[in-house]
Design brief:
By secondary structure, this protein is mostly helical. Helix content is 61%, strand content 5%. Helix 1 packs antiparallel against helix 2, helix 1 packs antiparallel against helix 3 and helix 1 packs parallel to helix 4.
Length: 153
């Protein structure tokens, strides 16, 4: 396995680990509680974590099955209401990601052109974009989590 494959695999595994960690640290009633009820632009920790997972699911659904659909419909708070459902969803996303990584045999695979939702692009570019967007939503989730903690203090 190449150094790039290993690095990306570790980065995505860490993203998955943080999703689980954040949701397990929240009380069930605070998963979708927004830190500022007056500002609807600031999402809950749960909403941001799900957005992060959706980014990864969409990319690896595209890579493994050429299904680039946004998983919005089956990731609504009404669907993923409990910690258990969220953790099961994260496990499904991680399994899809691992199936995607099983397709990579060498770092040169990342130089291949694929047809994604925005047209033809290099796989490396898609993976970097996915990782950046997933981490971006994760950082917002952490901020929402920290704000909730401050509210409790």
């Amino acid at each position: 396995m190449g150094a790039l494959i290993t690095w990306f695999d570790q980065q995505f595994a860490q993203v998955y680990s943080v999703w689980r960690e954040l949701i397990q640290e929240l009380t069930p009633e605070s998963i979708y509680r927004r830190p500022n009820e007056m500002d609807s632009s600031i999402l809950s920790c749960g909403e941001y974590v799900v957005k992060s997972a959706r980014v990864v699911e969409q990319t690896f659904g595209g890579i493994t099955a050429n299904l680039w659909d946004d998983p919005f419909e089956w990731t609504l708070p009404e669907t993923l209401m409990t910690r258990e459902k969220l953790l099961a969803y994260f496990d499904e996303v991680e399994a899809t990601r691992q199936r995607g990584f099983a397709l990579f045999k060498s770092d040169e695979d990342f130089l291949k052109e694929i047809v994604g939702p925005k047209g033809e692009t290099q796989l490396l570019s898609v993976l970097l974009d996915t990782l950046v967007r997933a981490r971006h939503h994760q950082l917002h989730a952490r901020e929402a989590f920290d704000r909730l903690r401050l509210l409790k203090s």
